[in-house]
Design the sequence.
């Protein structure tokens, strides 16, 4: 099967072959994909890291062989890449992948294309729960965007997936998959910072957030926000009511 790599900061994956179709996901710089179906204007791809499938514009397809070496991961909210020649800079976001990255020279390669990383070097994986919370709070007030995965717009499951990538864990994109990746806890009093809180109704899960100490949750709802949470669910002090009903608590790490 033909494969490719994302060579732009963000590429939208659409539900259908239209720029107006709902956003399924966003692919970040350095992520790889399999090409499922190719048409003149649109190409259907499947992301290798979480199997999300969607349509991207054919002009944005960048063929490349899959590299088995693990890439470096951008941990800062933004980073700037400089091309080896010219002025076609890339402002990439946290969670982006840097294939064949050499920290000594700051160079990385996408096929034959060479870039230099400007700014902080990629750090190691998140080592503590406190670090995970610190990174989560960097997204505070980022606008909600269904299918989004960046500080410019992000959804609840996308926030969880990105944060756990920085931990070195590859979580699925959907709520059910993220729940299945962890161990169920019985009581909210057992939670540690970074545990996952799932919300919903009697028939399905509809939302996920990240537990924080002090009975708080970090989640994307309208924007990335911090609210109170208890065994009933999320309590929004601005609205003075519960907005999400707690269903399941999970520990991935």
Sequence:
């Amino acid at each position: 099967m033909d494969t490719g790599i994302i060579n732009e900061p963000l590429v939208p994956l659409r539900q259908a072959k239209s720029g107006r179709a709902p956003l399924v996901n966003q692919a970040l710089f350095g992520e790889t994909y399999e090409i499922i179906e190719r048409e003149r204007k649109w190409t259907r791809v499947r992301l290798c890291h979480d199997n999300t499938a969607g349509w991207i514009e054919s002009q944005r397809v960048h063929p490349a062989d899959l590299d088995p070496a693990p890439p470096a991961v951008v941990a800062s909210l933004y980073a700037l890449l400089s091309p080896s020649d010219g002025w076609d800079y890339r402002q990439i976001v946290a969670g982006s992948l840097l294939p064949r990255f050499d920290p000594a020279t700051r160079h990385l390669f996408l096929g034959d294309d060479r870039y230099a990383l400007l700014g902080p070097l990629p750090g190691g994986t998140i080592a503590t729960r406190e670090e995970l919370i610190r990174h989560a709070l960097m997204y505070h007030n980022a606008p909600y965007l269904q299918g989004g995965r960046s500080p410019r717009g992000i959804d609840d499951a996308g926030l969880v997936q990105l944060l756990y990538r920085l931990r070195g864990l590859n979580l699925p994109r959907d709520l059910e998959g993220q729940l299945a990746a962890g161990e169920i806890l019985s009581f909210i009093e057992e939670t540690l910072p970074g545990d996952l809180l799932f919300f919903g109704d009697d028939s399905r899960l509809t939302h996920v957030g990240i537990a924080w100490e002090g009975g708080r949750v970090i989640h994307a709802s309208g924007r990335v926000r911090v609210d109170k949470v208890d065994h009933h669910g999320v309590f929004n002090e601005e609205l003075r009511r519960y907005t999400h009903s707690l269903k399941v608590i999970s520990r991935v790490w």
User: Anything to note?
Assistant: The chain has two domains: 1-123, 129-251. DSSP finds three helices and 21 strands in the chain. The mean pLDDT is 95. The domain at 129-251 is CATH 3.90.1720.10 (endopeptidase fold (from Nostoc punctiforme)).
